[in-house]
Amino acid sequence: MKIFRKVRQKLASENKVAAYLRYAFGEILLLVIGILIALQVNNWNEQRKSKQELNQLKISLISDLTKDTVSISNELKNLIADNAKISSYYKRMGSPYVTRDTLIQIYQEFYPSIYGDISFNNNALNSLRSTGYFSSLENWLQKDLIEISELKENYGPIRSDIANYVDVLTLDAHHYPLTLDTNHPQYSGITSLKPDSKLIKEIWKHANFVELGSYMNALFEAKSVVQQECIIQLMKIQKHIVATLQKLNSEKH
Questions:
Q1: Contact between 75 and 132 (Cβ < 8 Å)
Q2: Separation between Cα atoms, residue 4 and residue 122, nearest integer Å
Q3: Burial call 122-156: b when 16+ CB within 10 Å, e when fewer
Q4: Helices 139-153/209-252 angle, 10° precision
Q5: Which of 124, 75, 95 is nearest to 233 (CA)?
Q6: Where are the domains of the chain?
Q7: Mean pLDDT, the chain cut into blocks of 10 residues (253 residues total)
Q8: Measuring CA to CA, which residue among 220, 237, 238, 231 is closest to residue 164?
Q9: What is the distance between the alpha carbons of residues 221 and 233, in angstroms, rounded to a whole number?
């Protein structure tokens, strides 16, 4: 800048107007070029920073989706196993040798709570939306994530099926008390009469074979319908997530 100032002063003192104007224009041009270069460097740094943040969010997204597949797989195992157990109850109830004691034993083995409750991991997706990076994702990924998000939001058995199960469950509960397994995490802290207690034995002594069998049939069917709906929906969500993960992982390679 000192050199430029000396040259400018020399030209001005020598009264060389044309040379001075050319020099001034050149100096302004250099200044503009310098500013443009600085802006370009700043833009490049901002783009690099944004790309790094987007890549980090993608890594978090892959982590969340992977965790979802694990959670879904575990819950599907529970749902399928419980429905299989209900099928085994039906097989025992359908035996020509079934007795009232058989029904009572099955009923006492029955687990009334419904499987399928699951918490999905949406932290990365929420961050992508809140930071505005969602629109920077590839079109196919935006479409996939919207579909997965909608499936998650709408997940759950049909309310009427749940209501029907609750109605059936409580229909004859005063006649046929459920014996809860207090060792199960679901019922920790809950007290319940033991199957061998005098009162429970007296209650079962007066149980009606046909009435009990009819009630159990309706109860098991209502629960199976609810859990089967959960299975169908979870499998659909899992299928979409796995397909998206495969695309994301193929991009990295």
A1: no
A2: 59
A3: bebbebbeeeebbeebeeebeebbeebeebbeebe
A4: 160
A5: 75
A6: 56-252
A7: 57 56 66 77 68 87 96 96 96 96 92 91 93 91 96 92 89 69 59 75 88 93 95 97 92 64
A8: 220
A9: 19
The residues, any chain, with a CB within 8 Å of residue 156's CB and separated by 6 or more, are 116, 230, 233
Q: Give Cβ neighbours of residue 207 (< 8 Å, ≥ 6 apart).
A: 100, 103, 104, 175, 176
Instruction: Find tokens 């959670």 and name the residue.
Output: 71
Give the per-residue SS3 of the chain. CHHHHHHHHHHHHCCCHHHHHHHHHHHHHHHHHHHHHHHHHHHHHHHHHHHHHHHHHHHHHHHHHHHHHHHHHHHHHHHHHHHHHHHHHHHHHCCCCCCHHHHHHHHHHCCCCCCCCCCCCCHHHHHHHHHCHHHHCCHHHHHHHHHHHHHHHCCCCCHHHHHHHHHHHHHCCCCCCCCCCCCCHHHCCCCCCCCCCHHHHHHHHCCCHHHHHHHHHHHHHHHHHHHHHHHHHHHHHHHHHHHHHHHHHHHHC
pTM: 0.77
Closest Cα partner for 204 from 113, 106, 111? Answer: 106
